Structure formats: C-alpha cells, structure tokens
Amino acid sequence: MGRYLIRRTLFLILVLFIVSVITFVVFVKLPAQDPAIRAAGRSPTPELIATIRAKFGLDRPLYVQFGRFARGIVPWPGVFLDEQVYFSYTNHVAVKEEIYSRVPVTATLALGAAVLWLAIGIPIGIVSAIKPRSIFDRGGMVFALIGVSAPVFWLGLLALYVFWYKLQWLPGSGIPPEENMIQAVMAGRFILPWFVLALSFAAFYSRMVRGNLIETMSEDYIRTARAKGISENRVIFKHGLRAALTPVVTMLGLDIGILLGGAVITETVFNLPGLGQYAVRSLLNSDFPAIMGVTIFAAFFICVANLFVDVAYAFLDPRVRYS
Amino acid sequence: MLALVGVLALVAAACGGDDEGGATGSTATGASGAQEITPGGTFKAALLSDVTAGFDPQKEYYAVAWAFYRCCLARTLLSYDPNDPDSTHLVPDLAAADPEISSDGLTWVFTIKDGVTFGPPYEDVEITAQDFIRAFEREGTPEVAAGYYFYYLDTASQGGIVGFSDFYNGKADSIEGLVAVDDKTLEVHLNRPAGDLGYRLAMPATAPIPEGASENHVDDYGRFLVSSGPYMFEGSEQITDETPAPGYQPGKSITLVRNPSWDASTDSIRKAYVDEIDVAIGGTAEDNQNKIDAGELDIEYDGIPPAEAIRRYTTDPELQDQIFVNSSDGVRFLWMNLAVPPFDDLAVRRAINYAIDRDGMRRLRGGETVGDIATHMIIPSLENDALGDYDPFPSPNHAGDIEAAKAEMANSKYDTDGDGVCDDPVCDNVLFVTDEASPYAEQAALVQDNLEPLGITLDIKAFERSTMYNKYFNPKEHVPFGGGAGWFKDYADAYSFVYPLFYGPNILDAGNTNYPMLGADPDQLRKYGYTQEFGVTEVPSIDDQAEECFALVDPGERTTCFAELDRILTEEIAAYVPFLFDNDVDTVSTRVQNYVYSGFDSLMALDQVALANGGA
Fold it and tell me: Binning pLDDT at 50, 70 and 90, where does residue A78 land?
C-alpha cells in the first residue's frame, strides 16, 4: 500500500505538470488580451508596455516563463503556488491567499451538497430498484428528469425568489463580511445553495444506484444468499448495495474533486466567494497567474479525490488489493 | 417619465445643497421622502464586479473606484461638490483656497489647509505639500503602471507639469515642476498653459500619500491605502508593511468605517451621514434588485437595474421616488475607420450617418430611460450645451432617413452610377466588430438592416468585450467598422474626449482609442499597413483645431472652441455615428435619503447619502 501511495503521489505531480503545460500553452497561444497591455492602462507608451512585460517576466523565453510557473505545482509548503510568481496581474493579491481564503466556502458548499445528494439520491435509487416499474420507480424517474434538466442558474434564481424573496423562509444570497463560515452555516446561508447544487447530482445518483442495484440483485451470489434463507433486507443492504455502491463511490470522488475546484454557477448565482467565482473573474480578466493557480488547485483536488476513491475500493470491494 | 425622475434627482440635489450646516438638523428628499436627516446607520451597497486595480489610487482608472476615492478615501487639492448644480465647478478641498495662478498661466500655487491629518495608522501625521509630490511621483513611476500618468506629461502638444516626462522616462530623480516651498505651500509649474489643469489636480491619483505608506507597495498599495477622507477601510489601524486593512477583501467585500482623523470643519463638501458603508461584491443584477425591493440592499452601485425593474419603478407611483435617472456624461457610438474603404469616402460616412435608426438603437438598449439621442460626439455638459438642438443628419423621430442617405451616397466614388447604392465590391461584407453581449448583437442586426438599402452588407463578428476592445485598440487589426464602443468623460473638460479619441499624435501601437485613425500621418498609415493594404495615404485631421482648443485657458473660450471642433468632427468628418448620450439609472431602497448625484464620477455620492431614521 505504501509503495502504491508513493507511486500515485508521483503520478499526481505528473498530472499537475501536464495540466500546467496545457493551461500555459492555451494562454500563450490564445491570449484574450496581452496582460502587459491590459496592466498598462489607457494610452500606454511602448516603453511602459516593455517595463510591465519585464516586470511580469513576459519578456523572457517561453520555457523560462513556464519554468517559473512549473515550480509552483510541487505540492510542498513554501513552493506550492509561490507568491512571487502566482501574483494576480489585476487585483495585486497573491493567488495562494485568494485561494486559501476561498477554499472554506467552496468546501462547505461541495461537501454539504454531497451529503444531501447522497441522502436523497441513494434511498430513491434503492426504492426504485427493489420496486421496479412501481409508482415509486416512476416518481424517481420524474425526479431524475427534472433534476438533470433544470439548469442550476435557473433553479438557483427560482429558489432565491421563492424561498427568500417571497416566503422569507431562508436568507438571500451572499455572506456578509462580518460572518465567518460557521456563522454563515448556522444562519442558513448554505441551505439553498446546497439543495440547488444537490438536486441535479441526486437525480443522477438515484438513477445510477437503481441501475447498479437491479443488475447486482440478479447476480448468482444474491440468489445463493436468498437460497440460504437470509432475510431480504440483509440481502439487499449487506450483499447487494455494497457492490452496487462501488461505482457510486468512484463518481462521488470525482464529483467532489471537481466541485472543490469551484462550483462556478452555484457560487455565482448565490454570490458565494468561493473558488468558482474566483476562476470566472480571473478568466474574464485574463489574469493568467490566477487562472494557472486555480486550475492547478482544482486538478490537485481531482487527483487527490481519485486517490481516496482508489484506496476506498480496497475497503468496499474485497476483490481489490493494492501492492 | 425621464423628466419626472430627472426632476426628482434635481430636487434631491437641491435640497442637499441647502444643507451646509453639518450632519444634523437638515432636511432631504430621497427615497424615504422629505424628512429630517438623522446621521448614522450602515449603508448597504453591491457591486457586480470588483474595482479593476485592487483599489490602488495611482492605478485605478475606473469610475466606481474614483467615486469611492472622492467621497470617502482620498481628498485632493481641488474637488467637486455634488450638491453644486454645476458639475464642472471645482472647489478647494485640501487646498485652503483656490490656487493663485501667475499671469502667464504657468505657475499654480496652492496653500494647503492646516490641521488636516491622515487616517490610521498615520493619524498623527499632518498632510503637507511633500505628500502630494509623493503621489505624483508614484503616478509617474513606470513600474507602478499607473492608470493616467499621461495627463501630467509635459510634451510638445500638451501642457503638463514641468519635468514630469523626464521623471517618467527615468531622466530625473524628481519632478522639477513640483516644488514644496514649505510644508503648506505647493507650487506647480507648467511647460505651457493648461486650462484644464485644475481638473487634472482633482483626480484621485493626486491625493496625498504619507511617507512610508506606499514605498514597499509598488504593486498593492490599494489594500494598504491610508485615507484622507471621512471614511477608511475597516481595520486600517492594523495596517503594517505586511498586514493590509481587512476592510477590503478583493473580489468579496468592501467595508468602510468612519475615519477618526477626519474633521468635518476642514471639509465643506462631504456630509458623511452614515456610520458605515458595506459593499458586497459579486452576484447578479436580478438578485440585487430583489434585495433592493426587499430593503436588504440600498443600491447596486455599478451597472443598471434590469429592464423589468426600470419599467416597474418608473410606472408604479409608489416606487417612482426610488428611481433616479441622471446623465452619466458618456456617449455611445458606431465608428468607421477612415483608412479602410469604403469609409475613406466622406459621402459614404455621411450616408451612413443619415441611414442609422438612432431611436431603434436606443430602444434596443432600453428606451428613453437609458439616455437621450446623441447627434454629436462630445457630451453636452462639456460644451455648456453649446450645440443645443444641433442635428446635422436629421430624420423623423431619429429613425433614419434613407432618401437623404442615398442622396449622400450618390456623391460617392463607390457609387459609379449615382443611384444612391454602393456598387463597388468594397461595400460587400464589410467587417463589423462588436460585443457579443446584449444589446450590441441586436444593434448590429439593426445596423445591417439600415445599411442594406445603401448597398452595404456587413460581416458581423461579435466577440467577448475585452477581445473586441483588443481588436479596436490595435491599429494593425484594420477593423473597418465598430459597434460596441462608448466613451465617458474623465473630468469636466472636453480635453478628456478630444485628446484620446480624436487627436492624431495620440494614435498608439497598443491601447489606441483613436479607432478611426483620425489625423494619422502618412508614416503612421504606412507603419500600420493601411497604405500597403488599401492604398490609403492620407486621412482627415482635426489636430490643428484641437491644439488651438487645448491651449485656451478661459473656460468660455475653451467650451466654444471644443463645440466648434465637435461640429466639424460630426458634420465634416463624420467618422462616428453617435446615437446615445448615456444615462445612469439607480433604484434604491426605501431607507435611502438625500440621494445626490456626483457629476465627477457619474454615480450616487456616498458622502451625501443618509438613511431614514439614521438606519435604525
């Protein structure tokens, strides 16, 4: 297991390197705006642009420019997202400072939503699977269709309009600067974002659980378990569900990893100052150090989440062993 | 309705103007009606986007940031009183009186007020002449990448501060033309008279900086900003070289609290009624509007309200005193590149000016509320409205006159048979570059419809806004026709229109805002490839007229000169199709009292606003 973890960690660095290369190439080849010209403001002289280009290191060969950023992908304190290089071209704040201040918001949103979509999606999936073509199954299908079809931005605005503006049951968007994360959670500021974000995922997960469980319940070992006289609940939950959940764990790991990189639309609609909002702003401003930083950070989360998933397999599925 | 809300705004301004006595006991008209002003409370605002350069006063070139500086954070030698109906009128702010100007106009002497100190952590430091020089030097330091250093350069074509160019170019260690005679006397020497110097000295980059505050913050002084106004970033007393004020969280929030150093007796402009100003950054216009409706938010400070809200607030009698419409002193226009056929022909340009349905362009943007139809390029307030009803391309209801357009086109070299329809291939698929967002794409379609009878077809390319501007800013892109541009004044003098937009010597390799290449000389046309690609060797120019206006010191002569220049530009060059003098539209909560509009930054004045019952 130890060797496996070391191998995977090295693989993580390789993935981050590839992501950084792609991000760098995309930025260099398809620049929305020359950052030096943008920073130079109106009516810049060629000398001013040259000065800023030198300041940003843009006057140096591409491999040198990339090298400066590449060093920052090593996940090690003091090196990761080095503040000298990963420093916003536009608001002049270290990218690391921005990211670290926003991670709690995004993590609260992603993890809270994940708990919700599992709590909603798995039971619906189980009921649909054990009573196929019943009214529960049909209802589950309708729920899934609605959940997957409703765009998050529309659902978010609708939820705000109904539950905050009209009914006044829940707080509106945003987190007041005087509130910390715990206070914001306690004030219920995440309830609507959690539900809105969770809805589409819950719909998808319910269908996935249903499909997997139906397939698993037709396996030979399930028939054997029933033949041995084991109770139906035990057959379903101990033997059937455990196998059916393995792909769900895979998806969960990936989904949480992606969301930790920023739930862009949800954060925008609910004005949550998370990584997704930061990513959008950085893209619109062509703020390359910020784009690079947030991309690497998101990739880092996805890789780590994948690693957790793979390790979790060993516990969930007895057939999986790592060496 | 426009008139009604305009009147409401004027009433609010006028009532605010009566209030010279301090922060209590005055009356005001605002969203909550005429009543006593009680100071106090927390004013809640929202910004859809953060300021653009981390609140650095030398870098920020953005009206929202300027509004915060003027109202709250950065006092200047001269400033504007939002209560003054004449939004171009400068008043002494940190200066004790108007400057003494030498008879040749080359030396301006300012006496600085006694007893004015900076905010924390420099609350014991009195503001001196050297603090202003420090700000100018920061503005003139290329590494700072300041936003509008060019306004202070002393060049052959511009009256500026003696030695500023040398300092900027690294040829001098200090700015020769700025002399601190003593702590309270600042002399400003110019290379040639500049009638608009006062306005340039009222810009936020010239606000004083205490020694030690900015030296280690070439890039990020914004978060370490030391206030000289009635408010400061919350927690400013904690500022050290490493610790910024927590009251500004970039991209998230701005929290302004009272600056304990500010003394109302030294400030005749700012009322500072509210105790605190909280600004949330981000979100959507629709959500912010709902919050204003619900009383959870007092104003969205950037952008305009959703069209639905504008309709509701202008038609519902109960809401009509919560909407304010004011000129934002900007113009929106189409522009044609004089160095690209068929726009190298005056007849084509004039034909297009006749053909465009200006009212339709405005309707697509939101109708009458969003502004008045523009019939010339320089906004009326900068010309003392000298052009009045001037309309060189009249048409019924400003909807375009295709017959007059055809008559103009018949004079064109590109209409060989004189039937009013262009028959040259240069009129086919003319590249039209615009913004992909609404309403620009819809306006492009309208332009296409308007020009079809003239035989001009468009190849419409819509881009994300910054990409569009990238193409506009680069003269080598040879963009022939643009539809997504607008221009807003920097300060209350037409120089801030004429120099950047129309002046030939200001055509730049990058960041060029003279989109039509007006006044480009043969070398420039060759340098940017127009001669080689299109055979164009000369274009019209208004440089001589512009330089004549720049040199005038008398305000009346200056506005008259610029108005004549505007007439020539609109009628005899016709490289632009102005269609809208833009309005700023605000909806505010019922809590808001004493809404006063600041003509300097074209936004509500946060230093004048109050809350009903002190926000209780």
Answer: confident
Alpha-carbon span B609 to B37, nearest angstrom? 10
Q: Is the pLDDT of residue B26 over 60?
A: no
Among B513, B104, B55, residue whose Cα is nearest residue B239: B55
**Phi and psi at residue B206, to the nearest 5°:** -95, 5
* Cβ <8 Å between A93 and B54: yes
**Whats the size of chain A, residue-wise?**
323
| Amino acid in position B599 | G
Q: What is the pLDDT of residues A230-248, one digit of tens each?
A: 888 888 888 888 888 888 8
Q: With left for phi above 0 and alpha for psi between -120 and 50, is residue B535 left, alpha or beta?
A: left
**Chain B residue at shortest CA distance from A269:** B283
Mean pLDDT of B89-108: 95
Contact A126, A236 (CB under 8 A): yes
Mean pLDDT of the region B503-522: 92
- Residue from B130, B58, B133, B129 nearest B95 by CA: B129
Interface test with B, best of A27, A91, A285, A286 (most B CBs within 10 A): A91
Buried b (16+ CB within 10 A) or exposed e, A6-41: eebeeebeebbeebbeebbeebeeeebbbbbbbbbb
Of A42, A101, A286, the CB nearest to B500: A42
Closest Cβ–Cβ partner in B284, B287, B508 for A43: B508
**Virtual CA dihedral for B485, B491, B495, B499, nearest 10 degrees?**
-40
A103-114 in b/e form (b: 16+ CB < 10 A) is eebbbbbbebbb
In the predicted model, what is the mean pLDDT of residues A200-220?
90
Residues of B in Cβ contact (< 8 Å) with A39: 145
Instruction: Give the per-residue pLDDT at B10.
Output: 30
**Which tokens is B501 given?**
């937009």
Q: Which residues of A touch B158 (CB under 8 A)?
A: none
Q: What is the DSSP string of B141-162?
A: -GGG--S-GGGG--BTTB--BT
Report d(CA B223, CA B237) in Å as an integer: 12
Q: What is the pTM of this model?
A: 0.86
pLDDT at B8 over 50: no
The pLDDT tens digits for B151-177 are 999 987 788 999 999 999 999 999 999
What angle separates helix A288-316 from helix A275-284, to the nearest 10 degrees?
150
- What's the pLDDT tens digit per position in B188-221? 999 998 888 999 999 999 999 999 999 999 989 9
Average pLDDT of span B100-126:
96
Where helices occur in A79-149 by DSSP H, the ranges are 95-130, 135-149
Closest CA to A285 of A52, A98, A2, A88: A88
> Given a cut of 80, is residue B2 above it in pLDDT?
no
Q: Predicted ipTM? A: 0.83
* DSSP H helices in chain A: 2-29, 35-40, 46-56, 62-71, 95-130, 135-149, 152-159, 181-186, 191-217, 220-227, 232-234, 241-244, 246-260, 264-269, 275-284, 288-316
**CB distance A112 to A188 below 8 Å:** no
Substitution target in A34, A43, A291 with the highest count of B β-carbons within 10 Å is: A43
Nearest to A75 by CA among A297, A290, A320, A310: A297
Taking CA–CA distances from B219, the nearest residue in chain A reads: A92
Task: Give dist(CA B511, CA B519) in Å, integer.
Answer: 17
How near does any CA of chain B get to the CA of A49, in Å? 9
Task: Report the distance separating Cα B23 and Cα B40, nearest Å.
Answer: 10
pLDDT confidence tier of residue B29, bands split at 50, 70 and 90 = low
Specify the amino acid at residue A27: F
Residue A176: asked if its preceding bond is cis (omega within 30°), the reply is no
Q: Chain B contacts of A263, Cβ < 8 Å?
A: none
Residues B402-421: pLDDT tens digits?
Answer: 999 999 999 999 999 999 99
List of chain B residues whose C-beta atoms are within 8 Å of the C-beta of residue A269: 284, 287
